[in-house]
Amino acid sequence: MRRCLENRWFLLLLRVVLGGLFLYAGITKIGNPQAFADSIATFKILPAHFISIIALGLPPLEVLLGFMLIVGWKARTASLGITALAIVFGVILGQAIARGLSVDCGCFGSGEPSAVKTWLSLGRAGLLFLAGAWLYFSKTLKSFESAK
Amino acid sequence: MRIRDNFLPRPPPRSTKRAVKFSIRQLLTAQGAIFKADLMFLFLAASVSLVTGILINQLRDTPLPLVYKDKAERLQDSVQRIASKEAPPAPAPAVHLPEKLSLDEFSSYVENKRGLILDARPEIFHRLGHVPGALSLPRDDFEKGYAALKDKLEADRSQPIAIYCSGASCEDSRLLKKSLATLGYTNLALFEGGWGAWTGAKKPEESAQ
After folding, report:
1. Is this model's pTM higher than 0.80 or not?
2. Which residues contact B153 (CB under 8 A, 6 or more apart)?
3. pLDDT band at B168 (very low <50, low <70, confident <90, very high)
4. Distance from CA of B167 to the nearest CA of A (A)
5. Whole-angstrom distance between the N-terminal and C-terminal Cα of chain B?
6. CA of B68 to nearest chain A CA: how many angstroms apart?
7. Which residues of B touch A71 (CB under 8 A)?
8. What is the pLDDT of residues B1-53, one digit of tens each?
9. For the segment B13-26, what is each residue's pLDDT rounded down to a tens digit?
10. Chain A residue closest to B69 (CA)?
């Protein structure tokens, strides 16, 4: 199992899928910051001053991390960033579910607020966390970076 | 060669046990240093992204204001701008519509063409399909939509107007009703079921002319 997960083709696949996901998510959000800001507002945790900052700053970061992961430039650092973002997403979605808020995830552009989708998004955040953490701790990427 | 290695690094050679002779503390400090460097880099990346995002925003036709305004506040601003150049409110209407219309009431309203029907959803959804006879007055582009419908609307501020959006969970129709009331419209009704209930009941649809 472990050998299979350390396979360099598997790691490449994981990076491309994870990176592609972030690239796509970032690009759709750059296209419509107002919709993303409205989605963030449905979570009711940030004051108005921070909502715009996140709505403008997060999508380019997602694009950057996705790009780094795909091309392999500082891929391990990027995977740490993605792991951290996945934790943040998970906590935010979790608190929304716990408070019974009707939220619109806004993960890939905006949609209707829905409880089922919030649970699905939470599950997806969990998968992102696992994939990101695995990439960060994988020996192959690690050994490559320390050899440089 | 280096690029290829970057893109698809090889796994490390199998190490023999004797070669690995770290103390745990050594390992932790080495890992800690790498971790710190990673965090520093990520902090830098986040800052660069933020600056890039703000710059891109400034180049937009309608940049996102740096202090967020929610849907209701944005609509309120548009209403204020329209109201400042508007006529006084209309006299009280003869027949009042109920505040809310059920599906049956709404469909008889539509069939008998008893008044205006407004679609509060974004314009693109109206183009894809709407209740027969409904006019588009999107909540997210109120000023433009209102200007386009000005003649029809302002002919009589006490005419019956029914408003809907995508479904029970959308707030667009409620916000629109409030704004129109502020502008002096007196005979407004909400169809809360919205587009979801309408298509769910297999009622006739109409799409862009």
Report:
1. no
2. B116, B146, B161, B185
3. confident
4. 10
5. 59
6. 5
7. 6-7
8. 555 667 777 777 766 555 555 566 766 777 788 888 999 999 999 999 999 99
9. 766 555 555 566 76
10. A48
The domain segmentation of chain B, as residue ranges, is 1-68, 71-200
Q: Is the pLDDT of residue B186 over 70?
A: yes
Nearest partner of B113 among B97, B134, B139, judged by Cα: B134
Q: Where are the beta strands (DSSP E) in B24-73?
A: none
- Of the candidate CATH numbers 3.40.190.10, 3.30.40.10, 3.40.250.10, 3.30.830.10, the domain formed by B71-200 belongs to 3.40.250.10
ipTM: 0.89
